[in-house]
Amino acid sequence: MEKIGINQIIHDIRKTRYLRILWIDYPQDILYWIQMDSKQNIPSMYSVRSLQDGLSSGEYEYAPDRWLPAVTLKEYGEADIRCRDRVWDIVKDAVLREPEIYMKSERAQILKETENRTNVRLNNLYKLLGRYWRGGKVPDVFLPDYKNRGKTRNYYDPAAKRSGRKKVEGANGKKLTEEDLLKFSAAIKKYYHTPDKLTLEKVYGRLLRDSYSVKDAEGNLAAPYPPDETPSLSQFLYWHNRHRSLPEEKNAREGGKKYALQFRGGTGKTTDFLLGPGMLSQIDATTADIYLVRQDDRAAIIGRPTMYFLMDAMSRTVMGMHISLAPPSLNEAAMTIINAAEDKTLYCRKYGIEIRPEDWPCMVVPDSLLADRGELESKSADMLVEKLGIKLQNTPPFRGDLKGVIESHFHTINADIKGLPGWVDKDFGERCTEDYRLNARLDIRQFTAIIIECVLWYNRFHYLSDYPRTMDMRQRHVKPIPLKLWEYGMKHLTGGLKVLEKEYLRFSVLPHGEASICRDGIHFKKMVYSCSLAEEEHWYDTARIDGRTRISVAYDPRNAAHIYLQASPEKMVECTLVEHNGMLGDFSIQEIEQMNIADNDEKKKYEPTERFERNKADERIEAICRTAEAMAPDTKGISHAERIRSIAENLEKEMQAQTIAETCSELAVRPCPAQNSAHQPGSRADPEEEENSVQDNNPFAELMDQLLDEALRT
């Protein structure tokens, strides 16, 4: 038979009542329990075996204990504590005499002695006993019960008086009824929860127009209601503030897409459920905030390049990149995927940068690719994916936040290129501002070399201070640097997830602390927790909209797996560490605090190395910029308007030159005419002569001639 415990709550299904077990005597086959939803303060006796049989047959069932006093002493003052102790001193000697206190004859004698000792009347002693037993047999039940004190009033009862201060004569204001509240709610839904974003004062005006005005036969406004029959603006605002739902309000006024992107809370991390490097990668493109020039005509401005990056979600490493003059397309995305799989030493060497294989070891095709429903959402993309064996995933529309890894990298790259020649500031296009396009000095190859330097620095030296390292990473002293994480993952993670054993303990008495409800979870001692109640009631959405709020929580100093918060005076809710903090569950709070201190010290010690390597990269970038400045021609003879007007034409010529250069490189023929006959900076060749030269030295024509000669000789 199942062992039954003292203080357990039993639900009598047949009689629809709840009972608390106060005492059990297995040898005598008896127990004493008290009914929870009754004013009767005397316990009754029952058979232990009968209860066990009832639990097995379904006549009884265990129920959650919602009668325990879930309170913290911080909520009470010294006077309340003295009140509790005074009552406890009265009943302590009686309630501790178990099991005699549960027996009728012995109980009468015990309470008579208590009455003589304390001068407390017998009927009051029975009330104290019932309160003690129903409250779980703990002294805290005698703390003042403020929530049950005072008179309950229904301010909207027609028989009740109008609440609030005295109304000014002739001003709007009335005794509100349930009908008024329905009109308030209808006006809020009709006028306030809409994309029109009307103010509450205007909504109040619409409310008076629709519901508190006299209309003529044609439905036009004829006269307002008398002031004593019209609610005031203060009444309307007070009702709205008490009953508003911030998540619902933001979702209706801003729209579902914007709400999901900017206001939706969440506890997930990109690294959750990833087996290792290459399992999931993110790809995206952005237009660089810089204008470039043509290689063969340094005075020709060609526009802003497109930057493609493919990043590993687990290690945050840049696996591949592609800088292009063309807009985002499937072909440009395919080039980025190919770059991720090629030897980076050869790729960097094409731009004059020598690296070792270990400086950029990523030469893999990702297992899954996360994109944003752009160029990779097409049948052509499906064919490309099938050939490369990639599982393609697309984010919902307007949800760039779901690709947080690569979106964050865009900010890093744009910060790196800030201040380069031709960089575009935010005030571009405004009156009285500099035309940044005229400062363009870098060509596509130089800009690509700069981005490669930025990527190499990022992969090799950038410290990811917010990266959720696993405990195995900490034990192996793996710094949160992309390539270190990549090397660790390739060695220890690829092939399966590492399962961490977790133990969960729950205690009846725990110390309390203060946590914060934030947009991404419940923060406590630099850890993040969550619970189903917070998800259901949109706590995280509210925190993102209205700011963080503080809440008292209980925690176990020996184990950080769970914390408990007080959802109501009668209910404690268990919160569990979110996925990316789950590895901390087997450590004590003190150990985690020491770990946080060590992490902070490690970051500070690493800062000089990170900054030194950043400075070295900056020196190389500045050298590239100086070269570009030295190559800049004298453009005094060319008007600004002419340079700006020819941007589109220059872009087309540069793209043609790039196509010819890449074709020559692939066919391994002699240098292209565009490279051999490159003019001096600022010089102008005869267009007809240049066109004939290109046609005479067309690499495709030469290749066909060679193939034809070989065929004739054979």
List the topology elements.
Blueprint: E1 9-12, E2 17-25, E3 30-35, E4 44-46, H1 48-57, E5 60-63, H2 78-95, H3 104-118, H4 122-134, H5 178-192, H6 200-211, E6 213-215, E7 221-224, H7 233-243, H8 246-254, H9 256-263, E8 281-287, E9 292-293, E10 301-303, E11 306-312, E12 318-324, H10 330-341, H11 344-349, E13 368-371, H12 379-388, E14 391-394, H13 404-416, H14 444-461, H15 471-475, H16 482-492, E15 512-518, E16 521-524, E17 527-530, H17 532-536, H18 539-546, E18 549-556, E19 559-568, E20 571-577, H19 589-631, H20 640-645, H21 647-667, H22 673-676, H23 687-696, H24 699-713
Parallel strand pairs: 8-13, 13-14
Antiparallel strand pairs: 1-2, 1-5, 2-3, 3-4, 6-7, 8-11, 9-10, 11-12, 15-16, 15-18, 16-17, 17-20, 18-19, 19-20
Give the key terms.
714 residues, alpha+beta, Nucleotidyltransferase, domain 5, 5 domains, six-stranded antiparallel barrel, five-stranded antiparallel sheet, 24 helices, 20 strands, 42% helix
Quick structural gist:
The protein has 714 residues and is of the alpha+beta class. The chain is built from 24 helices and 20 strands.
Strand order of the largest sheet: 15-16-17-20-19-18
CATH class of the largest domain: Alpha Beta
Provide mean pLDDT, rounded.
Answer: 78
Query: What is the helical fraction, as a range of percent?
Result: 40-55%
Proportion of strand residues = 5-15%
Query: Any idea what the radius of gyration is?
Result: 38 Å
Q: Structural class, from secondary structure content?
A: alpha+beta
- Which stretches of 5+ consecutive residues score pLDDT under 50? 265-270, 397-402, 495-508, 669-685, 687-695
User: First CA to last CA: what distance?
Assistant: 97 Å
Shape field: elongated
Largest sheet: 6 strands, antiparallel, barrel
Count of helical stretches: 24
Total count of domains = 5
